[in-house]
């Protein structure tokens, strides 16, 4: 099951490849206030989901992912978790893989329809997105399709790294960082993000010790991330558990400050 991805690219390579200027990289960011947690909750219904909901209203988004997508039939346990999460104020998205813009849109739209019909999700998480603007029409078409089916849906796209500003027209939220704590120390936003509100950006940071949790959350606020999730979990799948209760309580507290 491929539920995550990590890109390793140099900042210089991105600047040259996408045509960004060094001056854009230097634009100042204001520290984010009102930050919230968005969880790639790729774990089965049960105790982890109960703990997740206890973090509301600081926790604002979660994702269901029955089988690297909606699966072949409705699962009553996920129906319960979606209903309970929505009742607690957490919006729930359905996970859909896009194959970096190569998967057929017919297959993707079929997955979207299942999520809406079986689970009444609040939106869609489009994973495995590229960072090149060449695939903008592909994702813009999916964005328009989702909004036509459910106008108030939250659409997230996950390139997992800095990308072109073009993708702001393809989603409500962009995951512009997904990677390890070590990689996050070296990573920088492109600079154009300052033209948009922080709630358009989401950072996912794994392999972060409790000792480094507070500093990592603080760094995400300095980097214009309105949505954040930090976990001590690590590869091969850092999103298949929720942190311990002690870690989780501290994360919720740090993010809410």
TrEMBL record:
Q: Does the keyword Kinase apply?
A: no
Cross-referenced InterPro entries, in alphabetical order?
A: Spherulin4
Q: Specify whether Cytoplasm is a keyword of the entry.
A: no
Which keywords has UniProt assigned to this entry? Plasmid, Signal
Q: Tell me where the signal peptide lies.
A: 1-26
Entry protein name: Spherulation-specific family 4
Q: Which domain of life is it from?
A: Bacteria
Q: Which Pfam families match?
A: Spherulin4
* Species of origin: Vitreoscilla filiformis
């Amino acid at each position: 099951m491929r539920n995550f991805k990590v890109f390793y690219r140099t900042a210089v390579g991105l600047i040259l490849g996408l045509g960004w200027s060094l001056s854009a990289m230097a634009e100042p960011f204001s520290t984010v206030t009102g930050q919230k947690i968005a969880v790639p909750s790729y774990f089965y219904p049960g105790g982890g989901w109960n703990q997740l909901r206890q973090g509301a209203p600081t926790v604002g988004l979660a994702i269901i992912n029955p089988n690297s997508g909606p699966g072949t039939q409705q699962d009553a346990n996920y129906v319960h978790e979606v209903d309970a999460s929505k009742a607690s104020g957490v919006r729930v998205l359905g996970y859909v893989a896009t194959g970096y813009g190569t998967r057929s849109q017919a297959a993707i739209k079929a997955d979207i329809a299942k999520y809406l019909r079986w689970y009444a999700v609040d939106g869609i998480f489009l994973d495995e997105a590229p960072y090149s603007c060449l695939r903008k029409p592909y994702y813009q078409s999916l964005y328009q399709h989702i909004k036509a089916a459910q106008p108030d849906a939250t659409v997230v796209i996950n390139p997992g790294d800095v990308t072109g500003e073009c993708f702001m027209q393809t989603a409500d939220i962009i995951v512009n960082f997904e990677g390890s704590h070590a990689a996050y120390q070296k990573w920088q936003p492109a600079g154009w993000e300052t033209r948009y509100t922080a709630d358009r950006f989401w950072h996912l940071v794994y392999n972060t010790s409790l000792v480094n949790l507070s500093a990592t959350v603080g760094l995400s606020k300095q980097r214009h991330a309105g949505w954040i999730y930090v976990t001590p979990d690590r590869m091969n799948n850092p999103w298949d558990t929720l942190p311990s209760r002690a870690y989780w309580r501290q994360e919720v507290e740090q993010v809410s400050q």
